[in-house]
Amino acid sequence: MATSSSSGPATHRGVRVVDSHTEGEPTRVVVEGGPAVGEGPLATRRDILRDRYDEFRRALLDEPRGVEAMVGALLGPPEDPAHTAGVVFFDRARYLGMCGHGTIGLVTTLAYLGRLGPGPATIDTPVGPVPVELRPDGSVTLWNVPSYRSRANVPLDVPGYGALEGDVAWGGNWFFVVDTAPVDLRLRNVAALLAYARAIRAALAQRGITGDGGEAIDHVELCGPPERAENHGRNFVLTPDGTYDRSPCGTGTSARVACLVAAGRLALGVPWRQEGILGGVFEAVAEPLPRGIRPRLTGAAFVTGEANLIFEQRDPFRDGIGSTGATPRPRRKSATRRRR
Ligand code: PYC
Which among 73, 83, 142 is positioned nearest to 109, based on CA atoms? Predict the structure, then answer.
């Protein structure tokens, strides 16, 4: 972590965050004190964050400050001055093109901060501008980036599980969308679902099956029947950090709906209510595009906290405890000690 010595004996820099959850999936929005990534295109800001300040991502999301499944959002000015804000999303493993639950969390956070009221707004992301609307009941609608099925019924042999088929689809991130699972999509089966989805992702990498342009497929979406009759489907989504999305996953719901429309299983304009593994719901409606669809997605988020994060230089774990194990940094002498 970059540090500041301007605040007395403290050898830390404060980073102001607002936390929320969207149908159970956490988002941490950095509203002040994040790395200086400039005000250029969001894709450039993402590259600067990744190449120069990657330790910030881990310090923000890994234990002891973060939690499993948390997605971070570095808030900044919009790329287009006519828009509302710009954002770079990331998780504990890497940078996300788009994040549906994170966008709902971000809009809810901006409303909490008084920076946005009910009505339309536009958020710039590294994969393009995302129109949003804060609705009078506090829920959020977003018009996700164009989503499409890239390849249908791709055969895959998964060691330990056998042969299966899935669709390669884009919903703002790359997904392998599978209609089968060895167990029901229920929270009690999370360990088995994680093992299955991870095995699928490993088999995809091993066979060189990618998204367009050779991009890695870093999300696996398992689909099944809903638990409640008013809904249309349920999913379990493996995310890049190796854990699972607690929400129905905005980009995953977009990819799923794109596949359903492409297969003639869902008509344009007809709502699809997608349950996540906790039972939370996103409603998606497919709007037509020349290639694929534009998913209109609605869900709700709730602010859970506001904090000033401290990164003390003498803290050996100030950069987070990585999932591969803790590597404490050597302690640095504090300003106070140096003066003695
Ligand atoms: O909601 O798009 C989403 C998402 C991606 C990763 C975690 N959540």
Answer: 73
